[in-house]
Specification:
mainly alpha; 0% strand
């Protein structure tokens, strides 16, 4: 039995798991069921290491001649289930991050989100008015120093307006996500 492809696959999973663990840290609870992984880890890397130990067990039993057909079947099935679970977890990391970003903050209700949206819409209108006033102010400046200061003010207000609009889009996305789930 040649385990080289499984070892290569596990090496790839090791690199991916280490990167994900570094980025997101420990999960709040164990990632997998204890029947699948005995390590009860909240990180991916120890689970990949456990799968590697199953490969090592297979190799050791095979080289010593103690590998029975039942034992081989059991270990191979366990290994394939572990690899599949690891691949699924790695594949869904980005989806879970998106879900968390759209999840309500501290139990915000849809009504509260709509209130927050209305507040941002009001700020957006006021900031757009401020941009128009700043643009008009630039046209009335006569000296270079006054013009530079007016340009600075305009840029600051435009940046605030852009941030406000970005926040408003995020709130709208959270509302859409929430209403889709309900």
């Amino acid at each position: 039995m040649d385990l080289t492809p499984l070892k290569a696959q596990l090496n790839t999973l090791t690199n991916q798991a280490a990167e994900i663990d570094k980025r997101r840290g420990e999960n709040s609870k164990p990632l997998f069921d204890e029947r699948l992984f005995h390590c009860h880890s909240r990180l991916l890397t120890p689970c990949v290491e456990e799968a590697k130990s199953v490969v090592d067990s297979l190799e050791q039993e095979q080289s010593s001649g103690r590998l029975s057909p039942q034992s081989a079947e059991h270990l191979c099935e366990k290994l394939l289930n572990q690899i599949s679970a690891l691949q699924r977890e790695i594949a869904t990391v980005s989806i879970r991050q998106k879900e968390r970003s759209f999840a309500p903050k501290l139990g915000m209700s849809t009504r509260q989100l709509y209130h927050e949206l209305a507040q941002h819409q009001n700020w957006e209108r006021r900031l757009a008015d401020m941009v128009r006033h700043a643009e008009a102010d630039i046209a009335q400046r006569h000296t270079t120093a006054e013009d530079q200061q007016a340009q600075k003010n305009l840029l600051a207000v435009q940046n605030r307006l852009a941030r406000c609009r970005e926040s408003k889009k995020k709130i709208e996305a959270r509302i859409a996500f929430r209403e889709k789930k309900e």
